[in-house]
Amino acid sequence: MKRNYFIFDMDGVIMDSEPMHKEILKKVFGELGLDFSHSYHQTLVGMAAVPMWEKIRSDFSLETNARELMTFHKEIFFIEVASIDVPPVEGVVAFINRLKELDFTISLASSSSLKLINRFVDEIGVAPFFDYMVSGESIARSKPNPDIFLNVAAHFDEDPSKFIVIEDSYNGVTAAKAAGMTCIGFRNVNSGNQDLSAADLIVDSFSELTSEVIKKIAS
């Protein structure tokens, strides 16, 4: 069976943005008077905004509803992010070009907002390479549920088994495997000590994903 489709996560896979998300969320926690820890943050990586705030609300017994908390987070986020320079992950632009040369269909499925997705893919010049992009904002259930990846498969009217997902988080890998897709775990040190063990292949650099490796995992 030929796997002709690649799906990229964005934060930590295309953009090295997890440190930015962490620092802004730490600021939001401070504004709300909540304790922020590295270990707790690791449980949130890969989640969309509303489900993330539903989890935080439950964990900290907050009375404010999740959407109000999300709105507060967004207000701070888009003020802070305007002055932050976020670099692409090393080697990812060349890798995306390589996939297009090999005639793969490429999608982006990110828990981030569509506004942030559009900003980042435009900034690094890869927007034209993506055949489809979907934000967790438009999906009812966030990663680690498989919904966002199944949305991509439904868009192309293809069986999920024909897709290869690249993820840097436990939540993302779990979602990809639950969707019935092949998953490459990308170990990004800035995403923290994520458990990627359920992935079919784990890499530390895009340079490891040569044309030969890509053809093998896609076959």
Account of the 3D structure:
This protein is of the alpha/beta class. Helix content is 42%, strand content 12%. The chain has nine helices and six strands. Strands 3-2-1-4-5-6 form a six-stranded parallel beta sheet, sandwiched between helices. The longest helix is centred in the first third of the chain and has 15 residues, at 18-32. It is globular. This is HAD family phosphatase.
Reconstruct the topology from this structure:
Layout: E1 5-8, H1 18-32, H2 38-42, H3 49-59, H4 66-80, H5 92-101, E2 105-110, H6 114-123, E3 132-135, H7 147-156, E4 163-167, H8 170-178, E5 182-186, E6 201-203, H9 211-218
Parallel strand pairs: 1-2, 1-4, 2-3, 4-5, 5-6
Helix pairs in contact: 1-4, 3-4
The major β-sheet equals:
6 strands, parallel
Distance N to C terminus = 6 Å
Q: What coarse outline follows from CA principal-axis ratios? A: globular
Biggest β-sheet: strands ordered side by side in the sheet: 3-2-1-4-5-6
Identify low-pLDDT runs. Answer: none
Question: Percentage of helical residues?
Answer: 40-55%
- How many individual β-strands? 6
Keywords: Carbohydrate metabolism, Magnesium, Metal-binding
Protein name: HAD family phosphatase
InterPro entries: Beta-PGM-like (IPR051600), HAD-like_sf (IPR036412), HAD-SF_hydro_IA (IPR006439), HAD_2 (IPR041492), HAD_sf (IPR023214), PGP-like_dom2 (IPR023198)
Organism: Joostella atrarenae
